[in-house]
Amino acid sequence: MSGPTYRIQVRPDFDLHATADVVGYLADLGVGQLYSAPLLAATPGSTHGYDVVDHSRVNPELGGEPAFQKLRGALREAGLGLVVDIVPNHMGVAVPAANPAWWDVLRRGRESAYSRWFDIDWSAGRLRLPVLADDPAALNDLKVVNGELVYQELSFPIADGTGDGEPRAVHDRQHYQLVSWRDGPSYRRFFAVSTLVALRVEDPAVFEATHAEILRWGADGIRVDHPDGLRDPAGYLSRLRAAAKDAWLIVEKILEPGEQLPRGWPVDGTTGYDALSEVCGLFVDPTGEETFTRLAGSDRGGEAWPDVAYRSKVEVASTMLAAERSRLARLVPDVPEAAEALGELAACFGVYRSYLPSGARHLHAARAEAGRRRPDLAAALDAVTARLGDPDDELAQRFQQYTGAVMAKGVEDTAEYRYTRFVALNEVGGDVSRFGVTPRRSTDRRRCATGTGRTR
């Protein structure tokens, strides 16, 4: 890769045709490659593209294949490369009918050819879809229209031979169950977003089906969204590298202060949120720390940042991510307090996740801190920790996926909105506790840095 990379949020009102038309301008600026938002077919009307609904085609709302080829031709003529953003962790299901694979799973249940695509807890019974109003009588609003079950603006398929009778009776015969939006789903999701269902790309067949079109493009670079949500990030990245040997490969890995990218990952770097944090720190005067700390302390009753973060993570683990915690606890039926212990360990985890056997020290540190804060849970903490260190244990594998969600929702989306000592530091991948960075400490000038969800 040569020269700077310029990101364009390709979207329906600035599609691939419009993007192709500005390539000459980007070349005049000295740009080396264009970095695009996700380009696969997404939820109708999506302005971001991270809610893919069909991996087999370029998004028709962006101009489809003809517009994509127009962009590729313009880039080749101008001598620019193309970096594409891909989303291996999840798919969009806000409009069920727009996602052919999901629609088939809803219609056929476990018998669907696509049931293996999604990380569904079939042991929990019917597939729970949290779409209803928080009203016990919400199911009374169901209708059967044109052979589909309809709730407000949402439509759902009806399994063969189950469409006779009143709408509620039809609903009760489906492979899925509509529940309150406040209830958790029986599938893994992107953080707490129930309209983004998690994929099982650790399955080679799922990887192939969801990546064939992307790999056909032959992009010069690939940006991998949210690898920490995957069951086996290292295995996934190895498979992707083997399929895209010459691509510049970067990952959206959020590194905590002092944390290093896992050794052995076949990537060229991260999206550089930590580098952005250092650049931001250069513009923060360290001499102001005492004053701002005093002001923040008086505003929050003296509560320190570590306590704000811990309390927020515990809250998130036991509320908006309670469904995920319960799924974990069901894997430890012999420990009555397993759910609470798992939530405490996640709240005390100092990084987004471990990659066992690498990172086991973070689990041990979390156990020590959880024991300090909740000595009453010592027995349960010991019981679950003994299993969480085994990389072959499903509990450990799923817990690693869970801690990242607790960190993101608990710290980024909760604690950083409560602890407002100096909000410029409250950024994804930042370090709220570090007030300013000296030029001497910021020495690595070779890093990549891209915008976070907040800077965008």
Automatic annotation (TrEMBL):
Residues 9-426 form the Glycosyl hydrolase family 13 catalytic domain. The lineage of its organism: Bacteria, Bacillati, Actinomycetota, Actinomycetes, Micromonosporales. SUPFAM superfamilies: (Trans)glycosidases (SSF51445). Residues 436-456 are annotated as: Disordered. It comes from the Bacteria. This is Glycosyl hydrolase family 13 catalytic domain-containing protein. InterPro entries: GH, GH13_cat_dom. One of its GO terms (molecular function) is (1,4)-alpha-D-glucan 1-alpha-D-glucosylmutase activity. One of its GO terms (biological process) is trehalose biosynthetic process.
